[in-house]
Amino acid sequence: MTTWKLVIAFIRRRPLSWALHVVTLAIGLAVVLALVQVERAAQARLTRDLASVDLVVGAKGSPLQLVLSAVLQADAPTGNIPLAEAEKIARSPLVKLAVPVSMGDSYRGARIVGTTPDYLQIYGGKLASGRPWARPMEAVVGSEVARRLDLRIGKTFIGSHGLIDSGQQHDHAPYKVVGVLAPTGSVADRLILVDLASVWAVHGESEPPADDHAHHHHDAEQAAAPADRQVTALLIQYRSPMGAVTLPARVRAIPDLQAAAPPVEMARLFSLLGPGLELLRALGAVLLVLAAAGFLVGLIGAVGQRRRDIALLRALGMSARQVFLLLTTEALLLGLAGGVLGVAGARLLVFLGAGLTAPSLGGAGLAQPPMGVADLLTVAAALGLALMAAVAPAWIASRSDPAQDLSGAQA
Questions:
Q1: Considering its fold, how many domains does the chain have in total?
Q2: Which pLDDT value is given to residue 209?
Q3: Which pLDDT tens digit goes with each residue over 225-235?
Q4: Domain check: are 25 and 66 in the same one?
Q5: Which of 116, 151, 191, 260 could form a disulfide with 63 if both were Cys (CB 3.0 to 4.6 A apart)?
Q6: How far apart are the first and last CA of the chain?
Q7: Per-residue pLDDT tens for 51-67?
């Protein structure tokens, strides 16, 4: 009988006990690996979404909320700021690029953002089809929105007031899709981008424009004329490091305005989430320790129950080395099963987590990472834990006296 057949026979004699040990190991590995994958996916997602935005200027309130709403599009805005003040800040010699954004409407869960073409520059956005908006009520949709909502060139849609579908519909001002963005891997994929004048027109600050080009210049002048125009926030890139030193203080000196640095606020967010993540890591570590202890106890118990079987194998010519190999192979096979199940469980947890986060992230949750080094390391960790638990029992079994074990069993 080969080593593999003996290993399978040994496992089949205690299927429920070994299944419990394998599942415990798999759960511990799944929790730890899922946390690692989620953290990496979140960091990569934030890096892409924050892009090169150095500062966000918006209405007073929570700086974190301002960054989440204006940059990540994952929260409600803190309010609006006067367009005139935003334009003054944009003209500062410390500013390299200033992009206004206006929010407040949505279409089937996708946010409608009024902005300028410079918004695409922040994220390296390029058109996969169509053209940029050239007049109010024309829209360019992100790749994820186009796929999820089936928005194609020439299609019209009606936005809803607010960031949920239950808001009042703006039936008087339909949008027309004129362009679809190529995937950028950033927040731009999950947005519907329109002209600032479109947002003002939808909310009754000017009449929605007609479709002919003859009205284009008139509407643009009408949209820009009133002095009480507002935008939700201003996204800024510094011209030099000096901007980070002086510009935020200048903004805070303006009544009802605040300045928030995205990297600082994201560090604060992760510090708030830190204790919860540490607790989950500790839970995973405890489960791994319990799994290793379970393997150790299980193998010691199995060796005690198999004393006569092992003694017979030794009497039939199996060497101590082969006995040691037999028991360690059994543990490694069980560890391999736990590792594979752990990787599968981690992917299931990430998938479920992506589904839960999708509504707050514009329909696109955290991406499922491809198979990689982390998965192989997880399987290797499972094999390592199983092997460490098996060494002592296998050593004891390989050094036992066959004659004494057989005589003890017969007595």
A1: 2
A2: 46
A3: 455 789 999 99
A4: no
A5: 260
A6: 28
A7: 789 999 999 999 999 99
